[in-house]
Design a protein that fits this description.
Layout (H helix, E strand, L loop, with lengths): L21 E9 L6 E9 L6 H11 L26 E4 L2 E4 L5 H7 L4 E4 L6 E3 L2 E2 L2 H9 L20 H11 L6 H5 L16 H14 L4 H11 L8 H9 L12 H5 L6 H21 L2
Helix pairs in contact: 3-7, 7-8, 7-10, 8-10
Bound molecules: iron/sulfur cluster (2 copies) and FE2/S2 (inorganic) cluster (FES).
């Protein structure tokens, strides 16, 4: 078997030329939701400047495991291929990151021999490396992570936002809903709701949303609530966001472990957002007490 060699390694005389090197990959596969997972090994020819998505494309093209068995192509999600859409998150060598920006040369330099790919562990697996991130988007609905627009008629010019305020808000607006912060968070535990045989689609959606709503919102949603509560138009429904932030599964569940900020690919200052949201939630709770 030809050993996987990183081009960053020193090249020795007995090493195969670049065109004969192989990238060895170990993929945790799962055929359908709720089924047992299993490991499968693949090997694809090395090319300079590959990323994990191009490795997965080659695996799909071959549709054969390393031992020559015909296998179904590995499933995964991706879209933008430039770390913007947030859809390609997976565990690469045990760390949640974007497959499109995970470069093979760097991965082999950091862990020579083999690349390990697993789906995120905090979301239900749809198939192989593809997970259902619905809970993540449900949390954005819970905190109303948008600026409310009343109709489509001309509202005239919007309120002015100073350059300082823009600078403060911009980093938070870069969130791509990738889920890395949730994968790393000890307070964010997996919720998987399976549809019953006798259940309608609508009943199932309702039951799943209710289960998601009891779980922790997560750092991404807290940060988006801070972003929109700081926006001159968005703050019109600031109280509704604070209500969500302080209800079941709200900011009180955050244990301040700060794992989220360490893994965010966009380097969003999540702990600053959490601290701001915590202060605003306390003030709001006290105000609510006196308003009774
Ligand atoms: S700071 Fe809060 S949201 Fe971030 S990882 Fe820790 S518990 Fe999770
Ligand atoms: S806050 Fe960062 S890690 Fe979390 S979803 Fe947004 S971009 Fe991803
Ligand atoms: S494909 Fe869009 S972030 Fe990776």
């Amino acid at each position: 078997m030809i050993k996987a060699v990183s081009p960053l390694d020193e090249v020795h005389d007995d090493e195969p030329p670049v065109e004969r090197r192989m990238v060895h990959v170990r993929v945790l596969r799962q055929d359908a939701p709720g089924q047992e997972s299993y490991w499968e090994r693949h090997a694809v020819p090395y090319e300079p400047n590959m990323n994990v998505i191009s490795v997965l494309q080659k695996i799909a093209e071959r549709a054969r495991a390393e031992d020559g068995r015909e296998v179904s192509p590995v499933a995964w999600d991706c879209n933008c291929l430039e770390e913007v859409c947030g859809s390609c998150t997976m565990l690469v060598n045990g760390r949640s990151r974007m497959a499109c920006s995970a470069l093979v040369d760097r991965l082999l330099a950091e862990s020579p021999g083999e690349i390990e790919l697993r789906p995120m562990s905090k979301f239900p697996v749809v198939r192989d490396l593809k997970v259902d991130r619905g809970r993540l988007f449900r949390a954005l609905e819970r905190v109303k992570a948008w600026v409310p627009v009343d109709g489509s008629y001309d509202h005239g010019p919007g309120p002015r936002i100073s350059p300082e305020e823009q600078e403060d808000a911009y980093p938070l607006s870069e969130c791509m809903s990738c889920g890395c912060c949730l994968e790393a968070c000890p307070q964010y535990t997996k919720i998987e709701v399976v549809r019953r045989d006798d259940e309608s689609e609508a009943d199932f959606e309702h039951r799943r949303a209710a289960a998601y709503d009891r779980g922790f919102l997560g750092a991404h949603a807290i940060s988006q609530a801070v972003l929109f509560n700081g926006h001159p138009t968005g703050k019109m429904i600031a109280d509704e966001r604070l209500e969500s932030l302080t209800s079941a599964g709200g900011i009180q569940m955050c244990g301040n472990a700060q794992n989220c900020v360490a893994v965010c690919p966009k380097h969003i200052p999540l702990t600053r957002s959490i601290a701001r949201a915590g202060r605003a939630a306390t003030v709001w709770a006290i105000k609510k007490l006196f308003d009774r």
